[in-house]
């Protein structure tokens, strides 16, 4: 090995070593104190939220009652996701966790979407759900889908496109935990067909014609 090529090999190794911790930090950071209840009045903008003074923290900051009531399923999806993330539940700040309640009317769907920052562990309480996600492993799309029943759980790995469809004869109810205080959600169809993306991008991206693009766009116009 020449001096030059061994120098480049060293640089490459150093780059890999430097990048590994960055990849490992793609999830929420670990907390640096026991509690950091979101100070909803703080004007400060940081990656996460400022903590309210510990002296003002009370047990109520760690309790959330917003998952008790069913969401209204009288909408196009016949389903409703009620979130308990750091926005609704300030006590979750820095804890790397959140939850949702999902109500489904008969035939209701939680359409294909992703959570950029969270793995989701869903537990079905009532009904029958056809659930699944698409893996991108090896750049080949692989579907993992099945039907689950009350008491059964299903996990949707972080960032992957996933869905739930009520295939039972009655309403369904599920709760899920998510591995981020702020999982984020991106609905696949509205994300692509609502904004002013040039038609040509969608025509070529989906291999469809202008009419079909317009027809789908119309479904997601408010
Ligand atoms: C979900 O349910 C809540 C509570 O009933 C309601 O305010 C909200 O508009 C519903 N969302 C949709 C998309 O129907």
Report Rg: 22 Å
Can you tell me the CATH topology of the largest domain? Jelly Rolls
Span from first to last CA? 64 Å
Shape: globular
Please identify, by name, the CATH architecture of the largest domain.
Sandwich
Mean pLDDT figure: 90
Low-confidence parts: none
**H/E series:** HEEEEEEEEEEHHH
What is the CATH level 1 assignment of the largest domain? Answer: Mainly Beta
Number of separate domains? 2
Describe, in plain words, how this protein is organized in 3D.
With 222 residues, this protein is α+β, with helices and mostly antiparallel strands. Helix content is 21%, strand content 26%. The protein contains 4 helices and 10 strands. A 5-stranded antiparallel β-sheet has the order 1-2-9-4-7, with no helix packed on it. It has a 5-stranded antiparallel β-sheet with strand order 6-5-8-3-10. Strand 5 and strand 6 form a beta hairpin. Bound molecules: 2-acetamido-2-deoxy-beta-D-glucopyranose. The site of 2-acetamido-2-deoxy-beta-D-glucopyranose (NAG) has 4 residues, from loops.
Any key phrases for this structure?
single chain; secreted; disulfide bond; 4 helices; five-stranded antiparallel sheet; Jelly Rolls; 222 residues; 2 domains; 26% strand; globular; alpha+beta; Germin-like protein
Task: Note the topology.
Blueprint: H1 3-24, E1 79-84, E2 98-104, E3 109-114, E4 120-126, E5 129-135, E6 142-148, E7 153-156, E8 162-166, E9 172-178, E10 186-187, H2 188-193, H3 199-206, H4 210-219
Antiparallel strand pairs: 1-2, 2-9, 3-8, 3-10, 4-7, 4-9, 5-6, 5-8
């Amino acid at each position: 090995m020449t001096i030059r090529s061994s120098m480049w090999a060293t640089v490459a190794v150093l780059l890999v070593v430097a990048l590994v911790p960055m990849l490992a930090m793609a999830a929420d950071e670990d907390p640096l104190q026991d509690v950091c209840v979101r100070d909803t009045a703080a004007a400060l903008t940081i990656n996460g939220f400022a903590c309210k003074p510990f002296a003002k923290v009370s047990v109520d900051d760690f309790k959330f009652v917003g998952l008790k009531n069913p969401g209204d399923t009288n909408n196009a999806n016949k389903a409703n996701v009620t979130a308990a993330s750091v926005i609704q539940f300030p006590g979750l700040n820095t804890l790397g966790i959140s939850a949702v309640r999902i109500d489904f009317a008969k035939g209701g769907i939680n359409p294909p979407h992703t959570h950029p920052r969270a793995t989701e562990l869903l537990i079905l309480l009532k009904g029958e759900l056809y659930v699944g996600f698409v893996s991108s492993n090896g750049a080949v799309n692989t579907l993992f889908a099945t039907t689950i029943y009350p008491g059964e759980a299903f996990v949707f790995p972080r960032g992957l496109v996933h869905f739930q469809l009520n295939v039972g004869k009655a309403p369904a109810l599920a709760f899920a935990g998510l591995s981020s205080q702020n999982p984020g959600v991106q609905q696949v169809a509205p994300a692509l067909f609502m904004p002013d993306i040039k038609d040509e991008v969608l025509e070529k991206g989906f291999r469809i014609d202008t009419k079909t693009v317009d027809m789908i766009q119309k479904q997601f116009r408010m």
